[in-house]
Each structure stands twice: as structure tokens, then as C-alpha cells.
Amino acid sequence: MADKKAIILFSNEIAFDTNSKLGKKAATFANADITGLEPLIASYAKKVENAQNAIEAIENGEVCVYTDDSNIDIILDAVDRRTLVVVISNTGVAFWGHGVNGKVGAIARAINAQDIYVTIASITDLEITSECTGAILYQMLKDPNLKIAEINKLKEAIARMESVIARDNREPWEKHDCA
Hints:
- The chain is 34% helix and 19% strand.
- The protein has 179 residues and is α/β, with parallel strands linked by helices.
- The radius of gyration is 20 Å and the shape is elongated.
């Protein structure tokens, strides 16, 4: 599904307190080693200067963008339901939006840069390289079988299309059962 998008924010000014909009609806990982994450993200995401440019890039068709801006409220108000927002700071990592179960709250699992990279790529349907050794963070997903469910929906859609095509390819005298 090409319409999935991600905005990634690198900011040490953001705290994941439960009173903020992000803290109430995000899955957070406090035990995160983000060493080497920015080069991984840069391999498939476009860097933009600020939050407003990130929103514009997503609206213009970019699949994945990242910024060092900390205006999280602007982004959370502007993105649609098909956008994943990932906030990375020295206090942890928060996932919000598409595919994320915001009700899980804080997750005690230790994660690393590879895990974050693979999870973002998996949710947004970006290519995961063979060198990547991370694991998808299933604990925070709405549906751990997200990809299988999407494949099944696509198979059902193809079956419906094939039946319509088969119906339309009949001869005109076969289309009516009035014989």
C-alpha cells in the first residue's frame, strides 16, 4: 500500500509524559539504544528542515521524511490516519499513528536502532535490506498480523475484480438469463 507514510523526529527536547497528546496515544520505549539510527533513517528518508516542511513533503507524496524539529503538536494535528509518527529522543522512542496501538503505553522491552528501522520500514512498506538484523516491534502494533491481513484484503479484492472481468467478458446473449 503506497499511501502509508512516516514522519520521524529527532529531538531531545521532547518528554513522553502521560499528560501530553503524544504520551496519551503513543507506544513508548524508554530503554532504547538509538546509536547509529540517523544514518539508517537517512538511507530511505528525506531530511527536511522543520515540522512544516515535513508535513508538506508527506502531502506531496514523500513516503518517509525526518527532521530535527521538536514541534510535535503541529505534526500530530496535521497528519492523516495513514501516517506513522516516530519521535526519537534521549529519553526513548515513541510511535504514534498508523498501525500503532496507542493503548499499550510504555513498553519495557529494550530496543536498538535496527529494531526501529525495521519496524518503520515494515509499517510503511519500504524495502528492508538483507544487512538489517533488527526485529519488528510487535508489542506496539495494533495487529501483529498486519501484513497477513493486508495480503488477505488484496487477495479478496483481486478475486472480486476477476469475477467482474469474467462477467463482463461474456457474450451479450449470455449476460441475461432470460432464455
